[in-house]
Specification:
Length: 221
Amino acid sequence: MISAIITAAGKNRRMKEDQVRLGIKIQNKLLLDLHGKPVIVHTLECVQKTDVGKSIVILGHSGEKIKTVLENYPYKKVEVIFNNEKNVELSETLLNGVNHVKKGLCLCVAGDQPTVSSETMQKLIDAALRHPDDNIVSILARKDIGYLNTTEGLGMPFACHSSILKKYLPGKNDNINPILGDMINDGVEFFGVPARDKLELININHWKDYLKVQKYLNKTR
């Protein structure tokens, strides 16, 4: 069973700061329009084109607005859930997601990564499935590719077995990179999958990121 966990619960702090500074209407970055669809919808559509069965979208800040938007799209096998508390770190959001999926491989994607192609997401899944056991995290490479000896600079998206997440996420309430570091220090193997292009490495955190992604999609759609 392959599941997807899509995190969409963040505070939107950096984007909000940019919008205030630039005098732009304050809006959650996941709801910003990209070629006629919100950011979160582009991300979810890429996930849905992979071998993933069920997708879990975890909401927190701006959760009701995001949920309303997702309800306008007829996705199959998508469940929307909420964090019990809004002010939690990424690890708590991921843990909430993994507690709602069946045992098996999990593709973990941030909702603000609409430029990560379905092909690259599938490569993450395939790399994890090729490993002889469940002791593997296949992750989008930021520098080196293949088997890695450090998690420096790494984050989402990645694919790993739910058992790894259930072992390392509880009680951490932290960003994901330090937890990935704990994994590799304990002997979990990491495999870096190359990005298709530099744009796949962009998370939409700032207004300039949004404009860059918007420009790219206007050229390719």
